[in-house]
Specification:
six-stranded antiparallel beta sheet, Arc Repressor Mutant, subunit A, 46% helix, 3 domains, Enolase-like, domain 1, 342 residues, Beta-Lactamase
């Protein structure tokens, strides 16, 4: 039975293990957390918590560590909703103030902030582009060798790509190429754009002098637009977590990071333990790996995700609060007018 005393002891064990990565014993709890219970009482309650599946006993120590079910219970019932501290809030806002207004850049900057402040790997999954279609292309020449291209989809999503040409390209060539693509590719699914470009190559050759340079630039941009919706920052930070000194655990993590599709479907895995909190944060645990993610809305139809990946022993209060704060900040800055939820 989970009595208030056992819950208090359990929370202290989780907090201490997150802090030290060392199994926790009754004497440590008494000394550090000033618990008003005898060592025998604490040991008995730790045994009971282990039998209930919330704690585990390691082979190398008489202390206990949280189990996966224990972490789930902790995150479901014992998270501190105090939010992020003022220093973190100022640092995050300053990073957004100096970053480009492009949403893609903001998401990448968010990942860098999360990785730096949590000392773990962070990531982002952009809106699913599989069913989106191209609506319009705008190209803004900077000079003869540089241009900024903006793609707009039927959902209103925009993506910006920088073009750098190896040779001079005339303004008229850019205009002719863009007009042709807007006429022939409007309504085409993003995943099909690169293939459809092959059909347009003969027409480009007739109407655009530097057709080969522009053809290559657009094909590369279309491929990236359709497929590059997963981004990670701080992959190397996992090397400094003691849990990943186990080469098998590290190998499993690297495999997950290299296969975004598996990451997207992780919560439905038979081996996974998953939880969605009342605030909408999703937590998934698999083989001593934890993935914490939250969603942000670009408009009423498109949703992206920010995430932090690390060992199950992570500071969930800090991670969940930071993810939620940054996601809401992205929505505040980048959600299109009129798309805010009522």
């Amino acid at each position: 039975m989970l009595t208030p005393r056992r819950i208090e002891i359990f929370k202290c064990i989780v907090d201490e293990y997150i802090r030290t990565a060392e199994p926790v014993g009754s004497k440590t709890l008494q000394a550090r957390y000033k618990l008003p219970y005898s060592s025998a009482t604490i040991r008995n309650d730790m045994q009971a918590l282990e039998e209930m599946g919330y704690l585990e006993k390691t082979h190398t120590s008489s202390g206990r560590i949280p189990s996966t079910q224990g972490y789930k219970f902790y995150c479901e019932n014992l998270l501190d909703d105090a939010g992020i501290d003022k220093k973190m809030e100022v640092a995050i806002q300053q990073a957004f103030d100096v970053s480009n207004t492009n949403l893609e850049d903001a998401v990448r900057e968010s990942c860098a902030i999360l990785s730096e402040m949590t000392n773990m790997t962070s990531g982002a999954i952009g809106p699913d582009s599989s069913e989106q279609c191209l609506e319009h292309i705008k190209v803004f020449p900077i000079d003869e060798r540089n241009a900024v291209c903006v793609f707009i989809t039927n959902t209103g999503h925009t993506e910006t790509k920088n073009f750098h040409f190896d040779e001079d390209v005339s303004l008229q060539d850019i205009i002719n190429c863009t007009d042709l693509l807007n006429t022939r590719l409007r309504g085409v699914r993003l995943n099909d754009l690169a293939d459809r470009m092959q059909d347009l190559e003969p027409d480009l050759e007739q109407q655009v002098q530097q057709h080969d340079i522009l053809f290559t630039a657009f094909v590369k941009a279309f491929v990236k637009f359709a497929n590059e919706n997963v981004y990670f920052s701080g992959k190397d930070r996992m090397m400094y977590q003691p849990e990943f000194e186990d080469i098998d655990k590290l190998r499993s993590l690297m495999s997950l990071l290299e296969n975004p599709q598996t990451l997207k479907q992780l919560s439905t895995s038979k081996k996974a333990v998953a939880l969605t909190t009342s605030s909408g944060t999703q937590l998934t645990w698999v083989n001593d790996l934890a993935v914490v993610r939250t969603s942000f809305h670009v408009n009423k139809d498109e949703t992206g995700q920010l995430m932090v990946l690390g060992p199950s022993r992570m500071n969930y209060d800090k991670v969940v609060s930071m993810l939620d704060y940054i996601a809401r900040l992205i929505e505040k800055i980048y959600m299109k007018d009129g798309d805010e939820e009522k």
